[in-house]
């Protein structure tokens, strides 16, 4: 800091010159007056405000200096300075120039005369460093100021351009801008699960005194802890995410960016910022000092920071951050498949987990059969650890595979929708007659618009070369029920789930010539201008039904 002495004296002497020029009574030109005004305003802007948080932007390797003096007549008054780095570590120091603060105070206000300037220039002075710090932690200096001293704060960033906040106060009686931290500001981890972590912390004294204006907010991320709220905001923005002005801590209804998700429930605000670098969650939970963080990923390390926030000023104080690793996800249960046995699996769409089935081959050639009952399902089959099939299935799907005796097959099923899906699965030797019926080329039901009347509808569907039983069912529905009926239909359920009054007829038919394997049926006794849902069930030799795709038809209103 040897060079800093020169830079400290220079502004001080220039400030005296500015004040001296201001006291001259002789007439001046407009350019001289402009110079004096600019010089006075420049140094006046470097006076650090008392009782106000100031944001300061720093350019790399360029020091920035601010000054403060006491009001006249205040001797040995206490003061505090809090500096909050909002990104990289910085260097900052406090220097004191013991000179006439009486003159300097008037210089800043402009109420001085030439005689005082002369006295001040003759007075002895001394500059000394009373505090210096390097790092990225929030640091507070508390001291006693003298009426005969001018203070300078010098800030320097050597890594990159950044910004900081500085708070100076000489009033220790009107409360604190920043909420207070407890004597022990640590966050305790009291519970760890596969997808949850429970945290608890000691109450801030500010919460106990001003409960309506103070709240706790939690920041969760997978990178590291943050020592201040502005540091967290800066890091999140630099990763490509945009935040509301104060990290949404004031519960204001800010408009969110597309990569943000806001969740408000039970007086608790959560904002999830999504970016390629990961996910950052902000959760404000009022004045509760315990919280269970939900929806975490198993076997993942998370960092947790608690901030106590003043809702009136948005000033905050950070607890000492902590971290925890969620438990490893337990190995999924594997269900054994047996030859010829049909099982139905229900898949949780919200968790998006795989359901595993295992089969040890007793024949060289085998066949897997999948019948999709509801939703959308992804099937992945491996043989001795190597993938042999992987695709989304619809309707009825067969996979014929060839291998060796005692090959181990693993079938993994997953819902590709957020809603639950279900599927029937069967494995059997390839030569064994399948339990599921032989299917036609299409499972669609066709209706003939020209054959519709006020009380009848004609439908048609395809058959196969194998004689099979077909049963037709009808159901009267309303306009607003169509989507739900089609969406929720269980294509694996048989007529046993239907009401007896919905049955129309059952019939057998087949045709060796597939071009002629089609049948029609006219359903009579319907109401005019009414929507009906028609279903056709196909039964094979084993009695397992396959449901055609439902068809909605409306009878004519006038005939």
TrEMBL record:
GO biological process entries: nervous system development
UniProt keyword Repeat present: yes
Domain Fibronectin type-III: 179-316, 437-545
Residues spanning the signal sequence: 1-26
InterPro entries: FN3_dom (IPR003961), FN3_sf (IPR036116), Ig-like_fold (IPR013783), NDNF (IPR019326), NDNF_C (IPR045805), NDNF_Fn(III)_1 (IPR055271), NDNF_N (IPR056225)
Pfam families for the chain: NDNF (PF10179), NDNF_C (PF19433), NDNF_N (PF24354)
SUPFAM superfamilies linked: Fibronectin type III
GO terms assigned for molecular function: heparin binding
Presence of the UniProt keyword Chloroplast in the record: no
UniProt GO cellular component terms: extracellular region
Main location: secreted
Subcellular location field: Secreted
Keywords, alphabetical: Glycoprotein, Neurogenesis, Repeat, Secreted, Signal
PANTHER family on file: NEURON-DERIVED NEUROTROPHIC FACTOR, PROTEIN NDNF
Function: Secretory protein that plays a role in various cellular processes. Acts as a chemorepellent acting on gonadotropin-releasing hormone (GnRH) expressing neurons regulating their migration to the hypothalamus. Also promotes neuron migration, growth and survival as well as neurite outgrowth and is involved in the development of the olfactory system. May also act through the regulation of growth factors activity and downstream signaling. Also regulates extracellular matrix assembly and cell adhesiveness.
Protein name: Protein NDNF
Lineage of producing organism: Eukaryota, Metazoa, Chordata, Craniata, Vertebrata
